[in-house]
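My current task is to audit a protein record that another person submitted. My question to you is simply how this chain folds and whether the tokens agree. This is what I was given:
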Amino acid sequence: MDSYSLLYSSSHRTGLLSGFQRLRAQTNMCDVVLEAGGVYFPCHRALLASSSEYFWALFGETTLERLAGSVSLPAITPEGLEAILDFLYSGWLRISTPSLPAVLEAARYLQVETAVSICESFMTDGLNALNCCCYANLAEHHSLRDVLEAANQTIAVEMRHCCKKAGMIFSG
């Protein structure tokens, strides 16, 4: 039996995503169009299905959508869908405090767990007095226990500061 070597190229993965990104930008070889809020996004089924449990199930062998030319996604916003598609095609998730609810909703709906994890890190790392209540609500809505716990701790700390500033007696 001949011996062999198994070698890995980390640049191959990057090149593969770059190639799909270029094809998408040129709307070349796109085989499905996603629609959200009246905005249309030409895409590649293979990339979507390999990156999302939702699309894997949607384009499965026994679904009507497996051959459909377009798929409507009324539960998510165009901004959220665009951010998740950009992430699937590039590995980069564009996120800000104002865009967070739409991006997180799209990531959860489309079952892109890596994007959900990035949103969780964004919230946990960026917790402060101005956003802790908003982040707590988002975390509770999306069942993100670790973020909810961190947000609630931040709320408790900030409440202590507010009470002290207001001259209130606080025990505990």
About this structure: The chain has two domains: 13-125, 126-172. The chain has eight helices and three strands.
